[in-house]
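Explain this protein:
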Amino acid sequence: EVQLQASGGGLVQTGGSLRLSCSASGFTFTDYSIGWFRQAPGKEREGVSCVSGIGDTYYADSVEGRFTMSSDNAKKTVYLQMNGLKPEDTAVYYCAARDGSVLYTSSDQYPWWGQGTQVTVSS
């Protein structure tokens, strides 16, 4: 069974950093695409960063230059390093997976989801 778990959220001040982790199990890690999504109160879920099974990447304009994805295939874990955090980054962050190498940035293309981790950035 496909299982995902997001962790690493917390409370930081503006300009601070956090590293989120998404641990995966139940599938061939390198055959899947992984996406990070976030949802703030009163807002729709949005794509933050995604990586396809063949290495194509996507970053939302709002996080370009501040967030970076990386992976550890041996640990079957994807990371999201978040630097220069802003209050508008406050949201619940989710990791999700889909079967295939084509990069999609829409949440409805990802059938498997982990539980979210809360990121709060104070002014």
About this structure: The mean pLDDT is 94. The first strand starts at residue 3 and ends at 7.
